[in-house]
Amino acid sequence: MNVTISPSSVAGTARAPPSKSYTHRAILAAGYADGATVRDALWSADTRATARAIGLFGGDVDRGDDGRLEIDGFDGRPDVPADVIDCANSGTTMRLVTAAAALADGTTVLTGDESLRSRPQGPLLEALSDLGAAADSTRGNGQAPLVVTGPLSGGEVSIPGDVSSQYITALLMAGAVTDEGIVIDLETELKSAPYVDITLEVLDDFGVDARHTEDGFAVDGGQSYAPAGGEYAVPGDFSSISYPLAAGAIAADGEGIRIEGAHPSAQGDTAIVEIVERMGADVDWDRESGTIDVAAAPLAGIEVDVEDTPDLLPTIATLGAVADGDTKITNAEHVRYKETDRVSAMAEELGKLGVETTEERDSLTVHGSDSRLEGGTVSGCDDHRIIMALALAGLAADGETTIEGADHVDVSFPGFFDLLEELGVALERRA
After folding, report:
1. Where in the cell (predicted)?
2. Which is catalytic among the residues 40, 205, 311, 407?
3. Averaged over 358-365, what is the pLDDT?
4. How far apart are CA 142 and CA 197, in angstroms?
């Protein structure tokens, strides 16, 4: 699907979609349990991939008419899957499920689409092998397809922290149901640390104790997953909130935009509220009620470190395109290892719209004052976050902006374009 966006002002109320990060972890945690109900879950292409894995491990995920997920778990020990686990485009699924597969008494094969088969899995495979499982890349390059043979008993392992925090999450979640538990020593500084904090929060909500240590993290073995009252509710997603929030900062009319469901949590991407405010937008976050009100104002470029908030880079880059001065996004090298190289993708696609950028290995600088944001045709790069960020640029561009391959928003925000229309954006979908 291609989507063409005309310059538009926005107003109204937006509801935050549920968090993709929390939903992945909750589905898998319920799978590790005897069973649980997950309320307010995000049902997207990525989270459906995790749900399918639960089914192949011997559990079951049933989605009711009210959106609740009723999950029968495999109670700590997954079955050997009867088929290959296809993780589609979901890197979170592959990493979390790879560690779960190492608990099975047999062999599991995992794969994904072309993009996922290019993403690094080597450090996690090495860690699982060091812990007693057999974990290999079929091509010997640390990338999927993967072959994992368990069972894993636990122990102590060292792993780099600067490639993906999801390796840490995967080991902690699996480690709780091993015999020995797992102690993780970090070889390098941890990037995207708030995502591990999310994991610790979800584990605690499911009755599992995991903790920071002087050198990394640890989780004791022999634990059971069981949320209080048998239910867990997923909070709103601040990665997704970044898009209506930025839309309001760029193009809100006098009424502004109100975003609901924005309750505080461990998500690092709550930083987007402060970032938009620092750039000059009128922002008011009522944390108790979970509402954010935002109105447009002249924006000015700032410097933003995305070491802990990699998913915000595309949104910040678009804000920089409409701001005066330079917006410099630093500590961004790990953002190159997502669904696509998001640093290069944003530089290239914004360039097609007349935006001047300077790309370095670990940074992206957007020269707002040297740019003239004009309509044009851009590629979504098969990446949901690139697509949504470019849609924001279309609100302020001079002329129509067409985004190719826009259906990939289904990965995290299936109703994104419907929401834009509800806020007053003029857009046209073409198959």
Report:
1. Cytoplasm
2. 311
3. 98
4. 26
**Pair 278, 149 in one domain:** no
Q: Which of 86, 52, 55, 85 is nearest to 73 (CA)?
A: 55
Residue 192 labelled as part of a binding site: yes
Give the pLDDT band of residue 30 (cuts 50, 70, 90): very high
User: pLDDT tens digit string along 170-211?
Assistant: 999 999 999 999 999 999 999 999 999 999 999 999 999 999
Q: Which is it for the CA torsion 231, 68, 112, 269, positive or negative?
A: negative
Do 350 and 229 have their domain in common? no
**Rounded to whole angstroms, how far apart are CA atoms 373 and 388?**
16
pLDDT digits (tens, 9 = 90+) for 38-61: 999 999 999 999 999 999 999 999
Q: What percent of the chain has pLDDT over 70?
A: 100
Using CA atoms, how far apart are residues 402 and 411, in angstroms rounded to an integer? 20
Tell me: is residue 328 an annotated ligand-binding position. no
258 known ligand binder: no
For 411, the domain range is 2-17+236-430
3-state helix, strand, coil in the chain (%, to 5): 35, 25, 40
Of the candidates 179, 100, 160, the one whose C-alpha atom is nearest the C-alpha of residue 333 is 160
**How many Cα atoms occupy the beta-carbon half-sphere of 360 within 13 Å?**
8
Q: Give the number of domains in the chain.
A: 2
What CA–CA distance (Å, rounded) separates 211 from 174? Answer: 14
Helices (H), 206-322: 238-251, 271-278, 313-322
CA 307/CA 318 separation, integer angstroms: 18
Query: Do 119 and 265 belong together in one domain?
Result: no
Domain co-membership, 159 together with 74: yes
**Cα distance between residue 106 and residue 65, in whole Å:** 36
Q: Same domain, yes or no, for 102 and 197?
A: yes
Does the active-site annotation cover 311? yes
Q: Are residues 11 and 24 in the same domain?
A: no
Of 182, 204, 233, the residue at which a domain comes to its end is: 233
